[in-house]
Design a protein that fits this description.
- It is built from 13 helices and 15 strands.
- The chain has 382 residues and is α/β, with parallel strands linked by helices.
Length: 382
């Protein structure tokens, strides 16, 4: 593996290039557009044999790659924020039609009020769409998860969303180990299963009666359940093949003797890791659980890591209004009736708000105070 200095957008583009995507459709939106620019340069320089479809909206972008996928092409697009919301109709079609599309999402806050800054609300809005969702801690994750996403999508015939945060990751340079292209090709052989065939015409997405509709949804859900086994298997194989540790569903850090666990997904995981190291120097038994896979939700894997801790602080860079942070809500539901843990959901960093060491410190202190309320979320940084 070669060490290179690239942004998260470049890492996403490199992952798609190494996967040898055959169709790219895209509509420019901030801050996702640098990935498209890099991919279009690969195509222009003849480093990537790919059809680039220029479309008039994000809705059309996903519709175009859906059509390409139905025809058997390895397809990719990138978006974020309002663009992802505009794609919502087609996102449900892609998942229901069981198409192995991979999409990069440079997470950005949703309007209104208008924001150009990072948070995870756009991805959370698609939590019920049927897409597998992977979250990236750093630019290495962006590259590794993008490559693995194609393997997962094509094995399960289910679309995969690779989330990395706008600016914090999309525009920030980090050292990344890039795998050998030939080894990636061996890891990702083309597995064409076209639904559309001129020589064998058939209907796709026809009107379905109540007699059969539940069967389709059952099979779709079964694929998501299978993903809980496939995702760690693919990550393990990737790690062995390319010599770099890759997270599967979740990954624990200094949790062996921890009394307090921080749980998070995305870029804030790196900040929490630094916080844990500092607290350990002060003799405090605190650890970290990184959640890479949010959909399907890995409830069992999470609970296994948290079973011995007393305090749990869940950091959410998103809000489901009237409910709380999405990750905290899922964890509280999974842990219901499992013990007497104090699980404190914390909302921070919305719209690019502060979510550094001081904010994590405040969140942890609140969890351990007698004022912690397991039934509501704490807001940090108001």
């Amino acid at each position: 593996m070669n060490k290179i200095l690239i942004t998260g957008s470049e890492a996403a583009a490199l992952g798609a290039k190494l996967a040898k995507i055959e169709v790219l459709a895209y509509y420019p939106i901030t801050p996702a557009f640098p990935a498209m620019e890099r991919l279009s340069k690969y195509i222009d320089d003849e480093e990537l044999n790919c059809k680039f479809i220029r479309v008039e909206s994000d809705h059309s972008a996903l519709a175009a790659v859906l059509g390409a996928s139905l025809a058997g092409a390895r397809s990719y697009t990138v978006t974020n924020s309002q663009g992802l919301l505009l794609m919502t109709e087609v996102a449900y079609h892609a998942a229901g039609l069981r198409q192995p599309i991979v999409m990069g999402v440079a997470n950005r806050a949703l309007s209104a009020p208008h924001s150009r800054f990072p948070e995870q609300g756009d991805a959370v809005s698609q939590g019920a769409s049927g897409w597998i969702q992977l979250f990236c801690e750093n630019n290495q994750d962006v590259l590794d998860n993008t490559i693995q996403a194609f393997r997962i999508a094509e094995k399960l015939r289910n679309p995969v969303m690779v989330n990395y945060e706008g600016y914090i990751q999309s525009h920030t340079l980090e050292e990344v180990f890039a795998p050998d292209p030939e080894k990636v090709t061996a890891f990702l052989p083309l597995n064409r299963q076209p639904a559309l065939d001129l020589n064998n015409p058939r209907g796709v997405n026809t009107v379905t009666s109540p007699e059969f509709y539940p069967d389709y949804k059952y099979q779709q859900n079964e694929a998501m359940v299978q993903a809980l086994t496939l995702i760690p298997s693919v990550a393990q194989e990737y790690s062995q093949e390319f010599g770099a540790k890759s997270c599967g569903l979740v990954d624990g850090y200094r949790l062996e003797d921890a009394e307090h666990a921080i749980v998070a997904m995305g870029s804030i995981v790196s900040t929490a890791r630094l916080f844990v190291d500092e607290m350990r120097k002060q003799g405090k038994k605190i650890g970290l659980l990184k959640v890479k896979t949010w959909r399907p939700f890995p409830a069992q894997a999470i609970l296994e890591y948290l079973q011995k801790v007393h305090y749990v602080t869940v950091l959410d860079k998103n809000i489901v209004f009237g409910v709380g942070g999405a990750l905290a809500t899922d964890i509280k539901a999974a842990a219901y009736g499992q013990g007497n843990q104090v699980i404190n959901g914390v909302i921070l960093g919305l719209g690019g708000g502060k979510c550094g060491i001081e904010e994590i410190q405040e969140a942890v202190e609140h969890t351990e105070s007698s004022e912690a309320d397991k039934n509501r979320s704490e807001w940090i940084g108001l």
